[in-house]
Design goal:
The chain is an alpha/beta fold. Helices cover about 40% and strands about 10% of the residues. The strands form four sheets. A six-stranded parallel beta sheet has the order 7-6-3-2-1-13, sandwiched between helices. Strands 8-10-12 form a three-stranded parallel beta sheet. About 55% of the residues are buried.
């Protein structure tokens, strides 16, 4: 197997440029991520995914996307329906627990049908953040609820729906983004809650689902654990909380390094993320100069990180035999997806 480097990269547009192809061939990212700017016609999406894999010479190179429903949904009509946000699934759950759990599973299974058509193999879902009053709305309607029990129950169902469809779920944003008062795309928030409160509220859904194969970090400072560094670059948060108390031993991916919450240049960010204990550095915007900076300080996947990455790949290889039309009809009994 070709050696891969500890990074997941985006690309600039709907087709790869010769420079991008050359760069990916030389730098060998483990995987790729797509955004709305990369999405056009069905054939174009499939061709782009195939070209990304071809550039690194790995037919199983994972391709990620954020396909939640609500306002975070990269594939839109007419490619796929508009789907409800997490908060709408949560509202159904509060009215009828069994219906809510089934709807969470169905929504993810439908995402898997949609994404598989284009060769996309990983969905950055479920969102396990538990918002509090006064927090930034960057999570907001993406959350299943405001209590950890609801979030864990629906998150579990969502992850299981993805895995049933041969899709790798990536829970986010470990160890919890719900309390952040700033949008981490723009600034670095500090959470001053006590460790006991964090354990009870923020960390709890991740601990409940610590068996899942992959997670994405939060660019958030938890002053009770490490007052100087956000979780993504904090060896203390990753070692003591994520790997220790929460007990997550799966593939740990940084949130996007091009977000403003992280300081320093891109080589420094990449080195800090890996030194803190993340397995993979994520860079999303496709800007070549920034990607080159990331690549300059990422290392070849090896040891425990390679084991976790190889385990994650196994979730993309098998799927159930569910009938898509039947599942869509069932989902429509609760939510009218707008085509």
């Amino acid at each position: 197997m070709t050696e891969s480097k500890s990074m997941i990269l985006g690309c600039a547009g709907k087709t790869l440029t010769p420079d991008e192809i050359s760069f990916y061939r030389d730098e060998r990212p483990w995987g790729f991520i797509l955004f709305a700017r990369n999405i056009g016609e069905p054939e174009q999406i499939g061709n782009l995914v195939a070209a990304l894999r071809d550039s690194v010479g790995r037919v199983d190179a994972p391709v990620f996307i954020d396909q939640e429903g609500g306002r975070v949904q990269r594939l839109r009509p007419p490619l796929v329906p508009n789907y409800p946000a997490g908060t709408e699934i949560g509202a159904l759950y509060r009215r009828d627990r069994e219906a809510g759990l089934r709807a969470a599973w169905l929504l993810s299974r439908l995402h898997a049908f949609d994404l598989t058509r284009f060769g996309i193999t990983a969905d950055c879902l479920p969102v396990l953040d538990v918002p509090v009053e006064g927090a930034s709305d960057v999570i907001g309607s993406r959350a299943y609820g405001k209590d950890p029990e609801t979030v864990a129950a629906l998150g579990r169902a969502a992850a299981e729906g993805l895995m049933a469809g041969g899709m790798l779920p990536v829970m986010k944003h470990i160890p919890g983004h719900g309390r952040a008062t700033l949008d981490t795309h723009l600034a670095l928030p500090t959470v001053d809650a006590s460790l006991d409160e964090l354990r009870r509220h923020d960390f709890a859904p991740f601990k409940a689902l610590s068996h899942l194969p992959a997670a994405m970090t939060a660019h958030v400072i938890y002053s009770a654990v490490d007052a100087d560094n956000p979780a993504t670059t904090s060896g203390r948060v990753i070692g003591e909380i994520v790997r220790g108390e929460i007990g997550f031993d799966g593939l740990l991916i940084s949130d996007d390094t091009s977000m403003k919450a992280l300081s320093g240049d891109f080589p420094t960010k990449a080195a800090s993320i890996l030194a803190a204990g993340c397995d993979l550095v994520l860079h999303c915007n496709g800007i070549m100069e920034e990607m080159a900076g990331i690549a300059s300080r990422t290392t070849v996947l090896s040891g425990k990180s390679l084991e976790r990455a190889e385990n994650a790949l196994t979730f993309m290889k098998t799927r159930d035999t569910a009938d898509e039309a039947t599942l869509r009809a069932e989902f429509a009994t609760w939510f009218e997806a707008v085509a």
